[in-house]
Amino acid sequence: MDDTGADGKGRRALLRALTVGGASAVAGVAMGAAIDSADASERIPASAPGTPRGAHWRPAAGHVDVIWAVNTQQKLVALTFDDGPLPNYTPLVHDALDDAKIPATFFLVGKRVEQHAGLLHGRMDRHEVGNHTWAHTNLSNLSLNTAYRSVKRAHDMIVRVTGKEPRLLRPPWGQLGGTTLQVAGRLGYDVALWSLLITDRSHPHDPNGLIDFVADSAVPGSIILGHDAGGGPSRLTLARALPEMIKRLRKKGFEFVTVSQLLAAQASPTARGTA
Ligand SMILES: [Zn+2]
């Protein structure tokens, strides 16, 4: 994802709308009106339907999960990094993870994988790969075929360059429509969102503030989203703060796992990550 202010505003607006809906529901009588007006004001894009018209269709696995976090008592968290690889910050992030000997999950942009394949060679052994589309596209605005091409092209490039098969799709900005879920289903993916965004843009020159925020906010099962590309100078603050952030989380008893390992920990209470 890319935590642009505009999208943040959009999410806050949506949350406000949901809150208003919830309040109306409590009021009872007003509920119908609130729902009707919400429907009327929604412009549902053509990409939205979750099932194609007039055809029998089901995802490869019969279902697609959308994951924000995992319920677990174990002190496990998954660090994830979006938008790379790019030369400016990706190597710094890899260095920090290698020094700490911990795994992470990289949601890779296919086009950048093609352009900067060398940044990944020999550096992804302990990490999981995820798909972040071919060109960081808003999937919720695309037709099924265009969305499929974007994700499949990225999938093939990630496999070719890393030798690893992604099983998780993270739609850019977390924006997804019904067609996004269909694409995920066709490719046997689940959709991985996040529960804690590393807000480097709110702490562009304050690494300690950023470290405190993440260390204070993480809970068992958190999927933590950072960025190893784009977004301006605050990304450098994040990359440089990463070693201390990892230390602080460790001091609080957290272990680091990939998103798939975190999901396995949910399925089996005794499963542990390899970190
Ligand atoms: Zn992104």
UniProtKB/TrEMBL annotation:
Gene3D superfamilies: Glycoside hydrolase/deacetylase (3.20.20.370)
Domain NodB homology: 75-257
A UniProt-annotated Pfam family: Polysacc_deac_1
Range of residues in the leader sequence: none
Keywords: Hydrolase, Metal-binding
Alphabetized PROSITE patterns for the sequence: NODB (PS51677), TAT (PS51318)
Protein name: NodB homology domain-containing protein
